[in-house]
Design a protein that fits this description.
Blueprint: H1 2-7, H2 10-17, E1 65-69, E2 73-79, E3 89-93, E4 98-105, H3 109-112, H4 116-122, E5 131-138, E6 146-147, E7 153-157, E8 160-168
């Protein structure tokens, strides 16, 4: 392939020599895996397939959220892939209108109980976060409107947490009848 030719090109080798030491692999390829004539796309810029995550990358999981407002309720959706449903906690502060969701991201069941040394042997690439997380959102406010959090409903399906937050109807002008 043409790519193999360019992977061995002197300019590519020069480029690879400038790669920061932090980007260098912690474990080198063996001769059967990555011999000098068996280079593939993972060699450009270093051995990406063998890198561990940089300490500068954020280990904090921040779930994505959408908020919709209808005349009668707010709908809030959180993307929570691999979250253990039993660990999800929801709180709402009516004074600050802050909604908080917290929980725990878990590994697949067959790997969750492995000790760290055993996990290192089988985990070839790790991009998904694991551990505790928390996300806080401010719920926007229409003038004079409140949320009835005690009547809120939550549903968790296929990694998506759906919250329904009913609104207290706005009170407009009232007529007082004289008896």
């Amino acid at each position: 392939m043409a790519y193999t030719y360019y992977a061995n090109h002197p300019l590519v080798e020069l480029f690879n020599s400038f790669v920061d030491a932090a980007d260098q692999p912690q474990a080198q390829c063996g001769p059967q895996q990555c011999g000098p004539h068996q280079r593939g796309p993972h060699h450009f810029g270093g051995h990406r397939a063998h890198r561990s995550r940089s300490a500068t990358q954020s280990d904090k999981f921040v779930p994505a959220a959408d908020i919709y407002s209808t005349p009668t309720e707010y709908k809030v959706y959180f993307s929570l892939p691999s979250v253990d449903k039993e660990t999800i906690e929801l709180t709402y502060d009516p004074n600050t209108r802050e909604l908080a969701v917290a929980g725990t991201l878990v590994r697949p069941a067959e790997f969750a109980s492995l000790e760290e040394e055993e996990l290192k042997k089988v985990l070839l690439q790790s991009e998904r976060k694991v551990g505790k997380f928390e996300r806080k959102l401010k719920i926007p406010k229409d003038e004079g409107e409140r949320i009835r959090f005690e009547e809120a409903a939550a549903k968790f399906d296929n990694g998506v947490l759906e919250l329904t937050l009913p609104k207290v109807e706005k009170e407009g002008p009232k007529t007082i009848v004289i008896e």
